[in-house]
Prior knowledge:
Blueprint: H1 3-8, H2 15-27, E1 30-32, E2 38-41, H3 47-54, E3 78-79, H4 82-87, H5 89-99, H6 101-111, E4 119-127, E5 133-136, E6 142-149, E7 162-164, E8 170-173, E9 181-184, E10 192-194, E11 203-211
Helix pairs in contact: 2-5, 2-6
Amino acid sequence: MSQTSNRFATPSAPEHVTGQAFIGSLHNSQEFFTPYRHWLLSNTLPDDVAQAITELPWPPPVIEDTHGAREANNATRTHFTVERRARYKVCDLVAQAFQSREVTSVLEQTCDVDLTGTSLRIEYCQDSEGFWLGPHTDIGVKKLTLQIYLSKERGSLEWGTDLLDGQKNLVRRAPSVFNAGMMFIPGPNTWHAFAKRPIQGVRKSILINYVGPEWCARHELCFPDQPVSRPAAQ
């Protein structure tokens, strides 16, 4: 590994600091019920952790016609896998924080969801000019969706997720300030999208999901053999 990539992959904040930063962000989040229940967060990660993610030495994929779905470019998508966690400290740091019972317990209490038996999946998204997503709900195997925005380029404040009503009308565009987040529990009404718009630079974010045991692409998971555990008995 080059000296540059190693430096970028080694933020100073330890795992528990990363988890505590997210918990603090969640406690201070704004909860909304229109067009469906969702949360907007700020300062989701320690600053050096957020910055280190953006400096991972992975080039943005070439944008082909996505037909409005990330699945169209599965071959070029990147995740915080077992191998990448072993190579890049920041990948392991973030994964360990979101795998911890400390963080998952607060998520469960905040969102009224049971994550026991789910697996953590973190995708590093680098979207460039031509990218768009059609309306979809994330319903099914995804039990929680959290996107943390990591861009600072000109125009990036307009790169947030579009939240839609049942008629697919835009209700809110999530603020995409650096290190801000948007979270929801997937359901039949959780329509969201990314309408095509100018992207001058790279729209960077991490997409965090807790997925059920039926998730087939086990190689994408942070801990494929370690589902989220039940809380310890009191």
